[in-house]
Amino acid sequence: MYLKENRHVALHVACGDITDVSIENGNLIIRTPDKTVLSLLEDGKRELERALSWQGREMKVVMEEKIIKPSKVDEDEVMLRKEFGEKFKVKE
User: Fold this and answer.
1) Which residues does 27 contact at the CB level (< 8 Å), separation at least 6?
2) Which of 4, 45, 67, 70 is a good FRET partner for 82, with 20 to 30 A between their CA atoms?
3) Phi, psi at 34, each rounded to 5°
4) Sign of dihedral through CA atoms 21, 27, 33, 38?
C-alpha cells in the first residue's frame, strides 16, 4: 500500500511478481531469477525499507538472484538436440 500511495508504481508491480521471500537474521531476503525485477528492486531498496518501516517492521532488505538449475530432463533434451539436431522431436 505504501509504495502505491507514494507513487512507486513500477516497484509496487515488481513486488507482485515475487514469490520467494524469507526473513533471515532480521533481514527480508527477496530472491528472483528475473534480472529486470532484481535491478528494479535493488534501485528501490530504500523505498522497500521505508514501506516496511511504515508497517512497523524495521528490517534491512536484501536481494539475491535466484539461480534456476535445469532439470535432468531439460539437460537430457539439450544433449539430445546437440547430438541429433533437427531429427530430435519431443512428442507431446
Assistant:
1) 59, 60, 61, 62
2) 67
3) -85, 110
4) positive
> What's the pLDDT tens digit per position in 17-68?
788 999 999 999 999 998 988 998 999 999 999 999 999 999 999 999 998 8
Q: In the numeric block, which cell numbers belong to residue 10?
A: 513500477
Annotated domain spans of the chain: 2-67
- Total length of the chain: 92
Residue 7 is given by DSSP the state T
CATH of 2-67, one of 3.30.450, 3.30.70, 1.10.3470, 2.30.30: 3.30.70
Pick from 47, 3, 48: which is nearest to 21 by CA?
Answer: 48
35: left (phi over 0), alpha (psi -120 to 50) or beta: alpha
How many angstroms separate the CA atoms of 88 and 14, rounded? Answer: 38
